[in-house]
Amino acid sequence: MKATELRQKDVAGLQTEVKELQRAHFGLRMQKATQQLNNTATLRSARRDIARAKTILVEKQSADKSAK
Question: Rounded CA gap, 28 and 50, in Å?
Fold first, then answer.
């Protein structure tokens, strides 16, 4: 997912997105453990998507605190 798409979401939307990405990453890890995962590069991209979403979430939360 691109950062521009994530920046359009509100804080609640970002929190649900992070949870969904973490669930997907868990599924990929289980597939790797059972040797069902063919493309291991998806693990790396999933981790980076989670980090990107968390970074934007923190940015939005700190912007909301400073605006108050």
Answer: 13
pLDDT > 90: percent of the chain: 87
Domain of 27 in residue numbering reads as 3-62
CB count within 10 Å of CB 61 equals 13
Determine if the pTM surpasses 0.85.
yes
Residue 65 has pLDDT above 80, yes or no: yes
Q: Which two tokens stand for residue 4?
A: 């521009």
> Residue 42 sits in a domain of what CATH number?
1.10.287
* DSSP at 67: H
